[in-house]
Structure formats: C-alpha cells, structure tokens
Amino acid sequence: MLQILKRSINKLIITTSAFFVAIFSNNLNADWFALNMTRGSTAVSEEVFELHMLIFWICVVIGVIVFGVMFYSMWRFTKKKNPEPSDFHESTKLEIAWTVVPFLILIFMAIPASQTLIKIYDDEEGDINIHVTGYQWKWQYEYLEDDISFFSNLSTDLDEIYNLVPKGEFYLQEVDEPVVIPAGKRVRFLITANDVIHSWWVPDFAIKQDAIPGFVNTAWTVVDKPGIYRGKCTELCGKNHGFMPVVVKVVEQDEYDSWVNAKKEEAYKLAELTEKDWTAEELSARGEGVYQVNCVACHQVNGQGIPGIFPALAGSDIVMNDKERNIEILMEGVQGAAMNSFDYLSEVELAAVITYTRQAWGNAENGDGEIVLPKDIVDYKKPKI
Amino acid sequence: MSTENYYVPEQSRLPIFAAVSLFLLVMGASSTINNLGVEGSKSSYILYAGFASLIATLFFWFRKVVQEHLAGLDSAQLKKSYVYGMAWFIFSEVMFFAAFFGALFYVRSFAVPWLGGIGEKGSQIAAVDLWNGFEASWPLIATPDQNAAFAMADKSMAWPGWSNVLQWLPLWNTIVLLSSSVTVHIAHLGLKNGNRKKFNRWLGATVGLALIFVGLQAAEYYEAYAHYGLTLNSGIYGSTFFMLTGFHGFHVMMGGVMLSVMLCRSVFFNHFEDHDHFGFEAASWYWHFVDVVWVMLFLFVYIL
Amino acid sequence: MSAVIENHHDEHHHGPAKGLTRWLYTTNHKDIGTLYLWFSFAMFLIGGAMAMVIRAELFEPGMQIVEPEFYNQMITLHGLIMIFGGVMPAFVGLANWLVPMMIGAPDMALPRMNNLSFWILPFAFFVLLSSLFMEGGAPNFGWTFYAPLSTTYAPPSVTFFIFSVHIMGASSIMGAINVIVTIMNMRAPGITLMKMPLFVWSWLITAYLLIAVMPVLAGAVTMMLMDIHFGTSFFNAAGGGDPVLFQHIFWFFGHPEVYIMILPAFGIVSHIIETFARKPLFGYTSMVWAMLSIAILSFVVWAHHMFTVGMPLAAELFFMWATMLIAVPTGVKVFNWVTTMFKGSITYETPMLFACAFVVLFTIGGFSGLMLAIVPADFQYHDTYFVVAHFHYVLVPGAIFSIMAAVYYWIPKWTGNMYDERLGQLHFWLSFISVNVTFFPQHFIGLAGMPRRYPDYALQFADWNMVSTVGAFLFGVSQILFLFIVLKTVIGGKKATDQVWEGARGLEWTVASPAPYHTFSTPPKVD
Ligand code: HEA
Ligand code: HEA
Ligand code: CUA
Ligand SMILES: [Cu+2]
C-alpha cells in the first residue's frame, strides 16, 4: 500500500507534465473517427455488423420520435405559453397502442438476431482445430491435428508501458508468437483456461468466447483475407488482464504448410537440448528469458515478489536449499494459491528457470547453489513407485 | 386500519449495540478464518466478544419488546407489523436456501454431465481430454480431477434400498422432524383453548424432538466423516450435501432456541394468552418453515 | 426499565434529543433518513474519488498514476461503493423520509430495526475500505467478483469483503422488510393501494426485489467463503463444480439489483414531472403495472450478462427474448412521462431540469441496453466500454440524477429553506454537459474495441479517453458545488411555504416546512 502510494506520487508528477505535453501536441497516432463497430472480415462479422446497425437505427428512429414529442412539449407547453394546463390523464387506446407497437418492433428485431445466432452456434468440426488455453497472462495454442504447441505473450516493452520510450504502432497489441491459420479454411477454436476465467476476443471475426477453467467452449471462423488480426482478453483475469492480447495471422495455405513444418522442426530441436550437458551459466542465461516471460508478473524482476501476495524468491529457503521441493512446486503448483503448475513448459525451460532462480539475486552465494538439469525434470516426470 | 396511537418507541441504544456487535462479529470472523492454522492467533477472541454481545443485545431487545407488550403499549396494528415482518423475514430465508438448491440443481443437471462429456457442451470437453476418465454420475463420488487433493468418498448418503432402510438415518430424521411439526401444532391448539399444561407439554416434546434431530444429524455427520469418507472436501457432492444439511441444521438450532425461549416464557412467567401469543406463533412458523426445507432436502439431497 | 416505558407517552411529542446520542439512538424516520442520505453522499464522494483515479490513469495510454494491481482494486471498490454505498442507501434514505409522510403514518413500522439497518452500513463500509490497507490489498476482482479470481486467486482481504457483504445484505433486508410492513400496515385510512403515490409503489416493489435477491447474494458469498477456506468445490471444475455457477447465482441477484437502483428513480421522476407540468400524471395505473412487470421480468433475464460464457443455444435465445421484453413496460413509462408534459404548463426549476434530463438520458441508456440484449451483437459489445457507457447512462444520469432531483425537490420540506435556485441551475447544466462529455465517448471507445477493466490501452483509443477524462473531472467538480448548495440550504435560505411548489400534490406537502419531528401521530383524513 505505502509502496504503491509512493510510486503513485512520483507518477503523478510525471503525469501532470505529460498532461500538458499531450494536450498541446497531438502526437499520438490516435483516431477521432473510430466511432463504430468494426465490420470485420468474415461473413459472420459482417452479419453481426449489419444487425448492430439495424438495431442502432431503429433505436435512433424511436429516439427521434420520442424526444421529438418531448422537446416539442417542453418548448410549447411552458407556463408562459400555456398558463392553463389541461388535465387529461388517461387514454386506454393510446396505452394499448404504445404497448403493442414496441412489442412488434421487438419481434422485428428478434428475428434476424435469432437467425444470426443460430448460424454462429452451428459448430461442427473444423478443417483445423486449435485448442486455446488462457493463462495468467498469456495464451497457449495447441494444434490438435499437428502436434504443435506454443505460448503467445505480450511483446510490448515495459519501457513503453511506463512511458520511458515512445510507444510503437501496435502498442499492447503485439505478441511474440501469433497464432497462425490458413485462409479460407474452417478453423475451430476449443477454448479453455488453466487458472481463472479469460475471454478470447478477435473483433474482426466477431468471436468473443469465455475461457472457463475446466470447461471447453467453441468458436469457429472462416477468414478469406490473409492478414494480421488483433484482439484482446476481455474477462478480468487479474493484474495483467490488460496485457494479454490475441494476435491471429492468417496466411495462404502453402505458407501455412511451411510454417507447420518449421514449427515441428523446432520442437524436435528442443527435444535434443534435453540430452545436452549444460553448464550453470548456460542454463541461467536461458532461464532468465523464461523467467521474464513466465514469472516476473508475480515474483517481479528482482525476485522480491509482492509482500502478502507473491512470495520473494530471492532469499527463499526453498529456492536456496531445497532442490526437490523447488522442482515439485514448479511441476505441481501450490494448491489453493496463484502458484500454478508449470509442467507445460519444456524440460529445458523448467531446468533453466529453476537454475536461474537458484543462481540469481545472491541465492547461489547464500544457498547450496545447486543447479537443475533437464534430466532432473525428466526423472521427476517418470512414474514414481 | 387506523394509525391512532401507533406505538413509536423512544430513542434506544439497542440498535447501535447490535450494530457494534455485528461489526465485532464480522471482524472477528474474518480474521479468525484468515488466521486458521496460525499458531497463537488471538483473533477468535474478537469473534467471541462479538457473538456474546450480539446474543446479549438480542436478549435485551426481545425482553424490551415483551415488556412493552405486557405494559400494553402495543396495539393490534403493531402486532400486525410483527406478523408481516416475521413473514417476510422467513421469505428471505427461503431465498437463501433457494441459492443452495439452485446450485444443487445446476451442478446435477448441467455442470457434472458436461464435465463427464455428456450434452451440448460436454462433447467438446471430450475433444480436448480435460477430464480423461471421468464419468458423470450422481451422487458424485469420484471427482473430475482424480489426482487433486480431494478426499474421495467411499459411498454416498443416498437412498440405500429397501432392505437397509431402517438403518438409514435420514429416514429417522424425517420422521422426527415431521412429528415435531405435529407436536408444535398440538401445543398451539392447546394454547388456543387456554390449556397451558397441554401447551407446555407438547412444546416441551417439540424441543425434545429438535434435540433428537440435532443429535441424529451429528451422528450422521460423524458417520459421513468417519466411515463414508464424505467430507466438505470431497467434491461437489460433499459441498452441496454439507452446505444444505448444515445450514438446515443451523436453522433447526435457531428454531429450537426460539421454541425453548417460548417454553421458558410460558413455564416460568406464564406468558401468552389464548388469543394473544404472537411470540410463540412466530417461532412455530419458523419451525414449520425449517420442516418444509427438510422435506425438500430429503427429496432432492437424499432420495432423488 | 418500566419507568422509561411509562413516561414515553408524554415524551412522544417532543423534539429530537440533543447531541450525538440523537443520531446514535434515534428511532425517528426523519433522523434516520437524514443519516442515510448523508452517508450515501459521503460514499458517493469516496466512490467518485476512486472514479477520478480510474479516469486519471486512463487519460492517456501507458501506466501513469497507479499500478495495474491497484487499478483493479479501484474499479472494484468504485463499483461496490457506488452501488451498495451510494445509490441504494440514498434511496432508502428517501424512503425513510418520504414513505411515512406520503401515506400518513407516524413513523416507519419498526423504528428500532430501522436504526439498526442504518448503523450496520458505516461498519460494513469501514470493513470494506479497511481492506485497502491489508496485506495483499483490497478486493481486486471487479464488483461482479467472478470465481475463481475471487476465490483461489483472491487476496486475503476477500474474507473481510465477504463478511462485509453479508452485513450489508442484512441491512438491506431489514430495511426492505421495514418498508414493506410500513406500506402494507400503516397507510392512513382511505389510501388504498391504487391511490398510493408512485414513489411509495416503486419502493414497495423495490423492497420485494430486495428481499428476494439479497439472500441469494449472501448465498453466493457464503459459497465463496467455503470454497476459499473449507475445501468445497462449488466453483471448481476439478471437484465437479463450475465457475459459471457463480455467475448464474450472482446475476440472479445482480440483474434485479440494477432495477432496485432504478425503480425508486421512476417513482421520483413521476412526482416531479407531474408537479412541474401542473398536470396529473398520465397513466397512473399503467405506471404501476409497468413497474410490476419490470420487476417480475427482472427475475428471468439474468443470463444476459453471460452471453459469452458458452451457454447452450436455447438458453441464449430465451434470455435474449426475455431481456428485450423489458423494453415494453419501460417504454410505457417513458411515453407516460412525455404525455404528462404534453399540454402541461411547465416551469423548469432545478428538480424538473434533472427529471427531464433523466428521461432523455435514461432512455438513451435503455436503448444501449436493448442493443446489448441482442446476443450476436453482444458478442462484440460484451466487456467493452460500450457496456460501461450503457450502465453509466442508466446509473449516473439515471439513478444519481433522480436522487439529486429528489433532494432539490424535497429539501425545502426537510429543512424549511429554499435552495439557491441560481446555483441549482448552474449545478444542473454543469452536470448535464459533463456527464455526456464523460460517458458518451465511451460508446465510441467500446465499439472501437476497448475492453473494460483495462488500466492501459492501445493507441487508437487515446483521443476519446482523453475527452472522457476531462468530462469526468468536470463532473466531479460540479458535485462539490452540489455539496455546497445542500449545506447552504441546511444552514439557511429563503423560507419555504408548506406547499413549496405550485403544482405539488400529496400528503407530504400538507404538513409544515420543515416537517415537524413527528408527523401524523393521528392519521390524516384522506378522501
Ligand atoms: C439502473 C441500472 C440499469 C438499468 C435500468 C438497465 C436496463 C437495461 N439493461 Fe443494463 N446493465 C446495468 C444496469 C442497468 N441496466 C449494469 C450496471 C450493467 C453492467 C454490469 C456489469 O457487468 O458490471 C448492465 C449490463 C447490461 C447487459 C450486459 C451487457 C454485457 O455485459 O455484455 C445487458 C444485456 O442485455 C443489459 C440490458 C439492459 C436492458 C435491455 C435494459 C432495459 O431495462 C432498458 C429498457 C429501456 C428502454 C429500451 C428505453 C425506453 C423504451 C422505449 C422508449 C420504448 C421503445 C423502445 C423500443 C421498442 C426499442 N444491461
Ligand atoms: C451508481 C453507480 C455508479 C456511479 C454513480 C458511477 C460514477 C462514475 N463512474 Fe463508474 N462504475 C460503476 C458504477 C458507477 N459509477 C460500476 C458498477 C462499474 C463497474 C466496476 C467493475 O468493472 O467492476 C463502474 C466502472 C467505471 C469505469 C470503468 C473502469 C474499467 O472498466 O476499467 C469508469 C471509467 O471511466 C467509471 C467512471 C465513473 C465516473 C467518472 C463517475 C462519475 O460520475 C463520478 C463522479 C463523482 C465524483 C467525482 C465525486 C465528487 C467529487 C469529489 C469527491 C471531489 C474530488 C473530485 C475531483 C478531484 C474532480 N466507472
Ligand atoms: Cu486474461 Cu483478462
Ligand atoms: Cu441485467
């Protein structure tokens, strides 16, 4: 709390200066004319857009009529212009009319709405089926047919977020590895989550589907035009809810095929690394990257965590002296706490990140300094007797 | 309906005492629960203090109401306020139970089948192997996550078949509670006919039955934990089972206390007249309400 | 003890006690109403200050003022405080002041319980706010506290939050029981149900909603408590539960809750429009039926907040149709108000200005609500600023404007002094303009794709966010003016007549201004 306050005051000073800079220099590449919903780029999203416009215009017309009568009355029947009010206060005919007419209008709106919905709900298998899993705070994509699996993390630099360097064009809308799908194919997403509820939204496809831990929701799309489509997580999922974007890259079929092959090769190479003889330095270096991606959100860059919520790893007894328990925590998570299992990382990544935490922040000096090899993780995974 | 001389009590310190008690109770309960398992935590003292002062405040509050009644300050109209008040309070309790029954119906008809791969949403679960090997059934004995730290129950509390029905505690509980509704009604009839002896006797019997019910329920919980492996921690079946029966049991105790208070008032102070006994009536309504909830429980938790 | 009871008859017609004990021990509906109103105003300022933190952070892209973690705590507390501390107690305060006077009752039916209902609230909010200073911070899971973010992943203060909601619920239930009993049992002879003032009707229906749904909320937080601390799995799929179950239970409470926050407003606005149009309200009977229909329908539309959780098709269709239906009775009310003005003889004192703004801006909020009800379109709107715009339109120029209108309208009766009309008009115009500057652009931001509950956003949303923030600060400052006007009126001002407004009808205008401490110890004659 106090820490936050302190930081806040500092920022307040920065902001007030930023305020005036921002007001007088319209240097942000913003868009005053982004007023309406996107048309999107699929048949479904077009239809949703049309539906939105239809209802919008109906509301506008009703509004114009109702407010028209109201403003007219407000203008015409003031005490000055109409000192003697009439005192009618009932008209069954009128009241029936304004019950029935809105009702009919509603039916008129409900029909196309229901039709579109039924179309969206028609979910048979896709040509390609992708299993999307939300994590705090990243997305995992697994291609059910092709045995490809990877994570997609926000790639915007922290310095941009904290206003230390100028913001790039795709600020907060860029990831290290987008999900790739072929154009013109029916793609079906099977969406779930690993910890809390997230929601996978790509406005251009008119897909917004909650990712519920333990349950699977589906959504499908056919995108004809290759391109890069950007979306976001739309269910409050904790601290970094605003920082887990979705990026979908739609490519032609042959480009897709070669991408699939490259991904498979990559996986093969990673498996080879497991066999390799690692030094502490190599592992630590690799582990730092893994830590940045997976752990900083909670345990912080300096390993200090956030008091009361996320324990410090720097100086943690487990991290310094208890290699077995350390591996176990990473593999199993801690029941009932935000610390989830990370067993979906590769053996190399796991070994690297554990080694990194055991070496960094003076942990090696104060603790046993033992490193963890990919082999240890493999051993851990072997069925225990 | 006349508001002539509606009794508006003077300033009173009871409400603010009650509010402070609730505050202590709530602070105490929260910190006690948060410090569960922390060695040497003293938070529970706040909880006890809040609880004690709440009980004391309620005691003085109701005593005051009774005194006002005996002093003849209230009118028929005020009594009607109490009647309405009690009725709507019971309705709010009904809605509280509705939340838990709703949860039960939802998991039974939707969540558990879906998790087991049945139904519109379930088929997709199967497609990604989230809960491999889990089969939906009710009562739910094996939880979807077979490895998690759930204490797996061995068997459920459900209907054991005709041959074992006599060892089936819920049946006895039902009989006990239903008869207590009858005895409290007989007591009421006695009171209405000016027969205080009959009233005291049958009300005493009701309180006795309430005690028996609570005892049996305790025995059943003991069974569940000790021999069935059924605990709060054994998945959604245990959760719904213990929360529904637990809150019901808690309400039985409250109702039992209300009835005992009425019994004491009648036995020791000769309160209540044949035409004037709303305190008792309120308690007996509450009792009937608790009874109805049990019947629903028996039906939906135990039999179906 | 008995001495106290005996001399109560003589004391009955005395004025209030002196000093602090007057407020602590009071059983007087006017005192309690005043307490409620001041409390809610304080909460409005606190919740509003939090909104200012939110808006300041969103002034431009990038993290400026607060950390994301703290931002989440701010939106959570802002939502909770505005709803449970701002709007609801304000309406209860108005009910306390007005219902007994409008139906010719000496007081509320259960005066001591009335005091308890109020005094629980400061403690409940103390508990809630104190969580800001606890280890791990305040609740950070949104006012809708969806599991499992609010269970397994919640900060420890969630336990305090849960119990605080429990006692808030107890307070609401007691308050609602009191209102119902008062209305059902204490009406002066001659005031039949269909002759009751509409504000009384609106509160009768609201009270039923409260009794029906607050216990359900209590059930929901109880399940959370058990899941967090005692190993149950209501909201945990691994044990056979379902996180979505939480949402069903929450919204079964939550949707009626939003009508709890608008029905009394309907009542208020009806009175004000008929007074300043100097013309009887058009369609009294249909107004009552409309409110009843809205209340009943509100129990079968809850899942329109959950269109994206992956419900079966049949459920989506049912909840879409049911939700759309609510437009019909609400429309009836809007048409009735407009028709009441038609051929009236209107003047525009501050209450009337607020009431007219209410009708227009609430209807705009209703239109966006209707758009949200259309499931395929809601897939695009859901959890974006379009929703934020919708509910602030119905809540701020809806509920809050109606409360302000009510204060201007009845404050002469409460204090005996007229408020400063010039300042009142200024307050109105400032509020009216700035509320639109704040919330109208949020429609654009939402449609363009900015999700809600984001502490930071992509560059294309920057301009309108900036506008919105500027509007929000202007709106905030305008409310300080409101505080000033109220204080000024309480202290002094032109003396008000008994009837106050030329067109005012109803029992409360027959008693003196300020209303005597005890009104109607014998029931008034009503024909
Ligand atoms: C006072 C509070 C209030 C009120 C009155 C309403 C009124 C309505 N609301 Fe709103 N709503 C909220 C408060 C309120 N809402 C809040 C707080 C949330 C967000 C909660 C959260 O997630 O945090 C929300 C969210 C919300 C959603 C979920 C959006 C989402 O999360 O994706 C939906 C969806 O259907 C919805 C619909 C409606 C509808 C149809 C009405 C209707 O009652 C409106 C009816 C009125 C009119 C339609 C205008 C007048 C009518 C006419 C002039 C007649 C003719 C008109 C036609 C025939 C079109 N609301
Ligand atoms: C009745 C309910 C109510 C009311 C009155 C308000 C009032 C306001 N709300 Fe709020 N709001 C909600 C209910 C309400 N809100 C809810 C339920 C949510 C959802 C929460 C969630 O997602 O869980 C929400 C969310 C919400 C958000 C979205 C946050 C997000 O999703 O990330 C925003 C952002 O602009 C916002 C802004 C405002 C503003 C500017 C006001 C203004 O009208 C406030 C004006 C009042 C004041 C400013 C106080 C008076 C002045 C002072 C105390 C002096 C100090 C003032 C200055 C320094 C200027 N609100
Ligand atoms: Cu993930 Cu929000
Ligand atoms: Cu709703």
Automatic annotation (TrEMBL), chain B:
UniProt-listed Pfam families: COX3 (PF00510)
Gene3D superfamilies: 1.10.287.70, Cytochrome c oxidase, subunit III, four-helix bundle
Protein name: cytochrome-c oxidase
Main location: membrane
Record-annotated Heme-copper oxidase subunit III family profile domain positions: 2-304
Protein family per UniProt: Belongs to the cytochrome c oxidase subunit 3 family.
Keywords associated with the record: Membrane, Translocase, Transmembrane, Transmembrane helix
UniProt subcellular location: Membrane
Transmembrane intervals: 12-33, 45-62, 82-107, 169-190, 202-219, 252-272, 284-303
TrEMBL record, chain C:
Reaction catalysis annotation: 4 Fe(II)-[cytochrome c] + O2 + 8 H(+)(in) = 4 Fe(III)-[cytochrome c] + 2 H2O + 4 H(+)(out)
Membrane topology, from the record: Multi-pass membrane protein
Gene3D superfamilies (UniProt xref): Cytochrome c oxidase-like, subunit I domain (1.20.210.10)
InterPro entries registered for this protein in UniProt: Cyt_c_oxase-like_su1_dom, Cyt_c_oxase-like_su1_sf, Cyt_C_Oxase_1, Cyt_c_Oxase_su1_BS, Cyt_c_oxase_su1_dom, Cyt_c_oxidase_su1_bac
Enzyme Commission number(s) of this protein: 7.1.1.9
Subcellular location field: Cell membrane; Membrane
Limits of the Cytochrome oxidase subunit I profile domain: 23-527
Keyword annotations of the record: Cell membrane, Copper, Electron transport, Heme, Iron, Membrane, Metal-binding, Oxidoreductase, Respiratory chain, Translocase, Transmembrane, Transmembrane helix, Transport
CDD domains noted in UniProt: Cyt_c_Oxidase_I
BP term (GO), one: electron transport coupled proton transport
General function of this protein: Cytochrome c oxidase is the component of the respiratory chain that catalyzes the reduction of oxygen to water. Subunits 1-3 form the functional core of the enzyme complex. CO I is the catalytic subunit of the enzyme. Electrons originating in cytochrome c are transferred via the copper A center of subunit 2 and heme A of subunit 1 to the bimetallic center formed by heme A3 and copper B.
Family, similarity comment: Belongs to the heme-copper respiratory oxidase family.
Protein name in the entry: Cytochrome c oxidase subunit 1
Species: SAR86 cluster bacterium SAR86B
